Amino acid sequence: MRLSYSALNDYTSCALKYKFRYVDKIKEPKSKEAVFGTLIHSALHFAHSPALVPPTLEETLDFFTRGWNADIWENEDEERAAFTQGVQMLQKYYADNDIAAATIVALESRFQFDIGPEDNRHTISGIIDRIDKTETGYEIIDYKTSKKLPSQAEVDKNLQLTIYARAFLERYPKERDRLDTVTVSLYFLKHGEKISSTRTLEDLARMEEEILAAVADIEAEKFAPHVSPLCDWCGFQRLCPMQKHKFKDEAWDDDDVRAAIDELAALKKKMTADRKKAAELQQQIVQFMKDKKLGRVFGDEAIAALSERTTYSYDVATVREALAPLGKWDDVVRVDGTALSKLLPTLDSDTQHAIEQARSAKTSQTLSLKRSAKQ
Ligand code: SF4
Fold this sequence. Notes:
8 strands
């Protein structure tokens, strides 16, 4: 299989979006955010294009202005805000960087490399925004126009940067033994902030395993939708079972089910309020019984009785010591998934990986209710 990084990114963010785009090959208009991002990338490419004298800020802004498409924005206010943001990004970029001093060795550089054993070979491709030669090694940079800044931990695990580090070694195989001198960075243009990291050969090997697992899922046609804030920018909302019902222009014949949802929501709300009220009443009754030293109290329609229940906890090490030699320890121990998922981020990456490999999934269906935006 041939897989670009952006296709892989689509698959990992929402497998159904990947299916619409790459399996069903449904054309979707480019989002305004994507058009904006492409123009900013082109402007930075222009700013760094090889020349005796690099383009000035004014020349780069002129390039940006000439490439601007006013038609994709909803209204004039939105268009003006986006244009201003683009100008500010480029101004900040010029203020923070000495364009002439950059030692760039590759700009918007295409790559491809193969992963997997002979009988399960796949090609990964993509484009690296920029590779610089630094005093100590190299730096691979990817520009981002997004608003949200990730944490350092997220950048350390960022799959895109790991793929880029692997692609870099394809081009510079001699750097394999000096991978710690190769920096991988995400440059957030809106904030003028660069978050950097490095990768190890183990990270690259793990990335291959991750991609092979994704490829196996694609080949097994696992295309489950994943609802996230990214849905708002997804061009397939009118086809997606998780979103299409919200478009009122469809003839859904759904008056009954809409009423059922609202009734269920009202019931759940009442149940929550009832549970809260019951806890308050219970506390009031128990307090009375304790104050008056009573075991039972009598209402007109019911009798409340206070009884004691003892629960036990065990010293885990002692119980394990007693049961393990009998081969019975596993019979009483269950892994607590919730506790494990809280623990997981605190573990080293090898242990995390081992635990993730040990995980198996069982799918069941539950109906959840959430307030809709209009409420
Ligand atoms: S709308 Fe959301 S869930 Fe549906 S395909 Fe797009 S990203 Fe996936």
